[in-house]
Amino acid sequence: xxxxxxxxxxxxxxxxxxxxxxxxxxxxxxxxxxxxxxxxxxxxxxxxxxxxxxxxxxxxxxxxxxxxxxxxxxxxxxxxxxxxxxxxxxxxxxxxxxxxxxxxxxxxxxxxxxxxxxxxxxxxxxxxxxxxxxxxxxxxxxxxxxxxxxxxxxxxxxxxxxxxxxxxxxxxxxxxxxxxxxxxxxxxxxxxxxxxxxxxxxxxxxxxxxxxxxxxxxxxxxxxxxxxxxxxxxxxxxxxxxxxxxxxxxxxxxxxxxxxxxxxxxxxxxxxxxxxxxxxxxxxxxxxxxxxxxxxxxxxxxxxxxxxxxxxxxxxxxxxxxxxxxxxxxxxxxxxxxxxxxxxxxxxxxxxxxxxxxxxxxxxxxxxxxxxxxxxxxxxxxxxxxxxxxxxxxxxxxxx
Length: 400
Ligand SMILES: [Zn+2]
Ligand SMILES: [Zn+2]
Description:
With 400 residues, this protein is an alpha/beta fold. The chain has 2 domains: 3-272, Metal-dependent hydrolases (TIM Barrel, Alpha-Beta Barrel), CATH 3.20.20; 295-399, no CATH class. It is 45% helix and 10% strand. The protein contains 15 helices and 7 strands. Strands 1, 2, 3, 4, 5, 6 and 7 form a 7-stranded mixed sheet that branches. Helix 2 (52-62) links the parallel strand 1 (40-46) and strand 2. It is elongated, with a radius of gyration of 29 Å. The protein binds zinc ion (2 copies). The site of one zinc ion (ZN) has 5 residues, from loops.
């Protein structure tokens, strides 16, 4: 195989956001990936997504394609059963598109809110309903397929694999890992057989928990902090030394020289994952109106109704002020925002729920006043609508 074809993407990466388990800083992982000639990198922290935005932004800055994901926990039985005998399994999920991102957020949130028992968990039933837009990898030795193999239950392992294959519409991969653990070699042998038998593709990963090989020592300290042990204690959780780092593509090809397809599949998966954030785009909800009704005209009518109720006579300056404010609200795209706030303040008033008179610059708006959102007459108290104008007036005062 030529150098050119030795392309590989790490799809199973724990960052510093896998608290007390991952020691790789987001920025350092990305820089290292770039140094090693890789153009994409995934983030798959344990049960949480709070690192994904930091990771995404840093990756964009480093010129690396970010792949958003999570290594979640799946309960064997219903997540409502919060008992020790309800085993949990690991599963790696990667986001393909916006739908997948929304589903992953739902999965991770529900796991914490509804399924929490020692770990945030969801169950098969929940995954079935939220699998669209996601790719799943069978994870480490803690994965459902792997655990069943280790327990000698090949039938159970196959059933689990078939469940995930169906759930993720062929976006499910059996994950080969090799951290020089005897158990892993045993499991991998079965996974390769199963891949052929059930027609499920393979993928090779390294379960990255730190950046460089030599970082295993500081990572070991972190594990001791997590488990409340000291370094010299014999009987404690530890990882095979110097195996859980960000390997180069060459190292991955060497280690998995028997499974080229599994290596190439990392590139294929990375190409399928194309989710981008839209920062600084306001995502205000739409205020539902009957078909054909114009949102701006509706808002205007509400304000004019309020104007008639609150002022008598309606001087020209009042109509001018109202038109001016409405023009700016329309221009800035806040028509629906005002309708929504009008709606819930109205609901509160009709149901005797107390609301305040309005605060900050909102109190300087005749639109807000005529809609009943605020209770202060901005004309009577000479309150101004725009903050920029306030600064000009303040400047005039200081000069004067
Ligand atoms: Zn795992
Ligand atoms: Zn992992």
